[in-house]
Amino acid sequence: MRRSGWILVGIVVFLSGCVALGVNHYDDLFGPQQPQQRIQDPSAQKSATYLSDIKPILDTRCVVCHGCYDAPCQLKLSSPEGIDRGVSKTRVYDGTRLLAESPTRLLFDAQTTAEWRDKGFTPILNERVQTEYANLNGSVLYNSLLLKQTQPFAQQGLLPDHYDFSLDRAQTCPTMDEYPDYAKEQPHAGMPYGLPALTSSEFAQLTDWIKQGSPMSQIAPPSEAELQSVAKWESFLNQDDNKTRLAARYIYEHWYLAHIYFNRLDKQSFFTLVRSKTPPGEPIELIATVRPFDDPKVARVYYRLMQVRGSILSKTHMPLALNDDKLARLQAQFIHSEYEVAQLPGYDPKLAANPFKVFAAIPVKSRYQFMLDEAELIVKGFIKGPVCRGQIALNVINDHFWVAFVDPEKNASPAVEQLLTRHDDDLLLPAAEQSNVLPLSSWAKYAKRQHDYLEAKTALSDKLFADGKRLNLDLIWQGDGHNQNAALTIFRHFDSATVVKGFIGQEPKTTWVLDYALFERIHYLLVAGFDVYGNIGHQLVTRLYMDFLRLEGEQNFLNLLPLSHRQAIKQHWYRKSHLSLSEFINRKSLLGAPSGIRYHSDDPQAELYDMLKTHLKAVLNEAYDYTAVPTALQPLNALPVEAINQLPQVSFILAVDASGAHQPYTLIHHNAHFNISSLLNEEGQRAYQEDTATLVPGFIGDYPEAIWHLPNQAHIDAFVQQLREVRTESDYRTLKATFGIRRTHPQFWQYSDLLHRIARETRGVEYGLFDYNRLENR
Fold first, then answer.
1. Which of 485, 518, 479 is CA-nearest to residue 502?
2. Helices (H), 587-704
3. The domain that contains 746 carries what CATH number?
4. pTM for the whole structure
């Protein structure tokens, strides 16, 4: 060992002894706790060091597990405010709570570290007397890193069973007073948890930073050009006339999760659209409501653009480009359209949760075109939105399906407008009950309303399509000839999901066709109206209501198929299912009108898929074309089902091509189901023999579960051959030992850095840090 290494070991041993001295005596040793002022001006030398040296380590070694609501102990290391806030023993994800939990959103639900302490968060940095000795010995962060440095960690192979990587694992979240006992009970729990320790250099840098009191600063402010763009957009969104104010409210309620940017430069800033008590030109004073349509309790809401100061995480990153063309488009849709707004709607929950009432003055065509223009972004909200993981929405959707949309010219007819106006009460969503819901009584009420709406919608459709001539592909939006949002693919990865542009992969089991009313309701159910802190009733009713909406989207697709095949295909999708209330209500919405499409085979669904791809050919995104992977890797798109069954949901493959460059691929495992109508028995509905897998170029998914490195053609060939022969868990582990980058790989962090470098190069503005909370231990 080099001399510097021996010195580091000596320091670690000495400080380990020092830690023992402080057990339960921190107030006596270092005085009472008091929040410190750590965030400094970026021009200060120590703050600059944080940005250049410390933040990159925290991002690449810590934020990959501690970045969102689902981070262990709510510890978010992605921003100075999150680091200063610390940890909480309260879980955000709790599907059993009887009463809603108070929200704990950074920047929104408390403004100072002292306020977070009042909400039960405890520090990970020393908040007692500020000396080098106290800053180290009184820091949970430092002691967590130190514990990892002093404990042996496996070099390859599997980690023992006492490592728990389940998402719902018990969380201790110790305070500094509790940490010595915690370290004795769980000596393996040093940080990074279940991954190799930091290098001696990284550990030394963080140690020196913590020793100095952990000074931090915010990232660089926006450029002058970006500030000019902010001013232009804030001016547009905050005009005084009722028409613009209502339009701005609609825009905000659909874009509030987006990461807005104005250029494609490497160092562009991102912004979020927020509600503020203060007008443009003044500091933003956030309106901190649970939902974007909750009562702001101010006379006038201002819509402002606030810079995103935290690290960009793939799992929450939803980029949206704003420019002059987009501004002109919004003006055409909302300002220049001929309608009047005599009076602005209020914020009573039963009104505000119903977009069909609140925005009734805005033409349906304008609203629908607005959603379609950024359909991928809106759908991403279902998946990446308030929850960081789309848990509630996920066991109600299939693992792989396509999404198309009804053309706005067909969907905004006077008859459709009248239907929505007559039945706006029936379109009320569970968010009207807010976050504490009695599920059974609420469910019965919404079921009755859904039944009445579908009955009216089906009657109107049968009338409009009586001759079959209009019930054809002319109904499907073609993206105005250029917009790739017209065709989407959704992948479910068990407890996470991804949406991308294009019809990706092999032909799916099901497809959704969304019309305006359906698209809008999904957004207000799963995004704008969903409260991750809500009680069990709120979460249950949300999931059950989503059953209705999925079935309606599938029904719209089925109605394009021949009358003779519709029921049989639907029965295949819902094999072995008991007739649920959702299916009972939706069963009558299969149209009696025949399809106007001529079919020529006994497999009309496959024919329809071919016709859809032809109909949308001009706008199909081909970035993830599974047929474009190299010939040597193509067999992974036709793996034996026994091999597929052993795969995790999302595997990232880094394969070196003939030029020596690393090329990224994603191998996605699609779980098949006999049906997805069961809320509590998903395992009982699994059709394991029907599982499929898709290999695509690039990265799909935010949570890699397996990472494979194939450094040359020989490794590629051997990997493909051996994976095709996998039949058992033992076979899979042998494959992983040869080609996988396990949690215990000695160079894990070097491969992690390589993975992120390639992602940054290939994903561009879509780039964000991946999350390792689902990385398997196999």
1. 485
2. 604-615, 641-646
3. 3.30.1050
4. 0.93
